[in-house]
Amino acid sequence: MNKNTFWKKYTRPFICLIIVLVFFTMFTIRLVDWQLIQGDYYREEVSTRANYVLTSDATRGESVDVNGEVIAANTTNYTVVLDKLYINSDMHINDVIVEMFDLLSHRDVKWTDNLPIIMRAGGYDFTEGSEYELEGLRSGDFLDLGVYSTAEEYIKAFAKRYDVENMEDKALQRNIISVRYNMEVEGFSATTPYTFAEHLDEDTVAIISETSQNKPYMDIVTTYDRVCVDGTLMPHLLGNTGPLTAEEYEENSEKGYAYNDIIGKYGIELAAEDYLKGHSGTKTVSKTSDGTVVSVVDVEPAKPGDTVYLTIDNRLQRVANQSLAENVVAARQNGIDTCALRGDKLNGEDCTAGAAVMLSVKDFSVLACASYPTFDLTRYSDGDYYTTLLNDKTLPLYDRALSGAFAPGSVVKPIVALAALEEGVVSEYTPIYCSQTYDYYPSNVVNCMYYHGSVDMASALMQSCNYYFADLGRQLGIDTMYLYFEKVGLGEYTGVEVGESKGTLAGRDSSSWTPGNTVQAAIGQSDNNFTPMQLATYCATIANNGVRYRTHMIDKITTYDRSKVVFENDPEKPEVVAKLDVNSYNLKVVQNAMRNVVASDYGTAYYSFLDFPLSIAAKTGTAENSGSDHCVFICYAPFEKPEVAVAVLLEHGAKGAFAMDVAKDLLNAYFFPNEVAETTNGAE
Hints:
The chain is of the alpha+beta class. Among the domains are: about 90-215, no CATH class; about 325-350; about 400-545 and about 580-610, 3-Layer(aba) Sandwich (Beta-lactamase), CATH 3.40.710.10. Helices cover about 40% and strands about 20% of the residues. A hairpin with a 7-residue loop joins strand 16 (about 435-440) and strand 17. The protein is elongated and about 110 Å long.
């Protein structure tokens, strides 16, 4: 091989080798410099630096009705926070607090003041209702005080704890103590800023922003307040949010919740919490031991919560609320007038409450769900208002539609009739002679409102004959009867996402039972107690030919901007919970009889729906209890092709016509919305 050929063959590999050796040499020299020559310096740097991971709150998702009309949203709120990460070792936290007071002294700003001790007439006193908080304060782990310690003794112990013992200005001393106490309670640290004041006006924001340019430990932060567009629309269903309690933090800390996070407390706010919360953002801050921040690196921006679409139609919900209120008042006034006219009582003069539910028969989605009396969710956090609600004997905080379990009365008779047909106890034409008093069990006599004589199933349902159904109950037996009740959702959770009562099913849930109790259970008395939501589900199941779907009030969930569906209840494929699996002819007998409750002039609802322009199947009911009877009404429409089912209950309403009027208002609003709108506008 000649010389020229050799160089041509090996020049390129030789050059690559030289380049690699040069890089390795430079890297080795750099490592020697870092680890040997300047090793002590860098080890000291590392030992005196610390990384802190800070979080930023996510915007909470919104709640909207089925048409996208906003129910719960967010408003922008400006707060001033103190960031301990930027307070270096040369500064005392008390000096920073005084600086904040000076900065806000000429502004109408309410700073966070939760100390349970106030100044009064030159001395100190405990705030009202602070006994539980004071018990924690005087523990050995905190102030170590006795049970009978005075407010002055608490302040003295606080002053020592927070290094303000020698402060002459007692008002300022007390205020510094309050801030330091709040900081301690809220876990003020390098990773948990402290909110000094909220709801700042624009001028205050501008002043603090200008000042904070040279004082990085104070900062203006944009937060979002949860607001309910109409606080009286559905307060029991929507629910509210609030700071985590110690117990809630313990339960949710592994899910990424910080101690001072907001969480849903009840209702949809709680049920959809995992979707509404969103994901907090994070950033890593590197800080030296002398308090100098050397780097800030954004890691992940906050992701807003999702938007929750309810199945509720706000328009129908407003109708339900208004009609309930009007008819409860009307029922009570009728009772008062009847008492004044005839002198007898228990005619509805004690009616103060009720509930109404409307479901879609197609998929058992909740279109309206109202409880009366109601309250204003926008004032729920007002202490005085909340106390008023607690002291109100009509219990406005009580959700009667979902949590209230009431004796249903005669509205259970359709399912008793169906059970009797299926079990071969009677045929549709088997006569039973009603002599008005059913005394087969002398200890459980059942009285009928009228002397009906010989009745078959259709006429017994139309006229709501207690005698007939008491005898069916006796022949069926309680075990068979409650199995049919369960299949249509009575005494069962309906599946609705917010909290609900399971109710009480006679026989199954009874502590003791005798055969005579069965005749009472067959007419909706005894231990039977069901929620209006269960009654609506039961009615929808009858309308749906015996198929019960899961009742629900969440339609779908989308991203915050509503551009992408995250979850959806498919109305074409609803979740089947139970099937009656009964003979279709027997079911049709019961459905036709329910139709005649309204269509026949012998029917108990005939005169209330005499001129109603829609075919309806229904059942009326009155339930005995302490005070005036409850009046209950269930129906579905149209009869030929059911779209909606309705259940209405008026506590102590006595006269069923008022419950029927609520149902009529809801049916009108659903089927004839334009006419209802014109009537409403005309009234205004």
